[in-house]
Amino acid sequence: MHQNRNAMIAAAIILAGFALLAFYLPDIMMAAAEFSPVAAGAVVALFLLGFFALFWLRGRHQNRKR
């Protein structure tokens, strides 16, 4: 039960961090777009890939611990 609680807390912290980043993502995109439209697209791609990659890596780490 202790592991489930820790996993839920970790997931909540990760989701809160990504929610905060998603809140500021339009501003970050606009700043990157001043440099290059491709850079703005890369920012979004990195955000989306990072979200899924982080949970994928966390899942792999949890499987190794078992």
β content, as a range? under 5%
Major beta sheet, specifics? Answer: none
What is the total tally of β strands?
A: 0
Give the helices and strands as they follow along the chain: HH
> How many helical elements?
2
Question: Could you report the average pLDDT, rounded to the nearest whole number?
Answer: 89
Structural class assignment = mainly alpha
Helix share of residues?
A: over 70%
Low-confidence sequence ranges = none
Radius of gyration: 15 Å
End-to-end Cα distance, whole Å, is 14 Å
Shape: elongated
Total number of domains:
1
Description:
The protein is an all-alpha fold and 66 residues long. The protein has one domain (2-65). The chain has helices spanning 2-35, 37-65. The longest helix is centred in the N-terminal third of the chain and has 34 residues, at 2-35. The mean pLDDT is 89.
Short description:
With 66 residues, the protein is mainly alpha-helical.
Task: Give the helices and strands, then pairings.
Blueprint: H1 2-35, H2 37-65
Helix pairs in contact: 1-2
Keywords, please?
mainly alpha; single chain; 66 residues
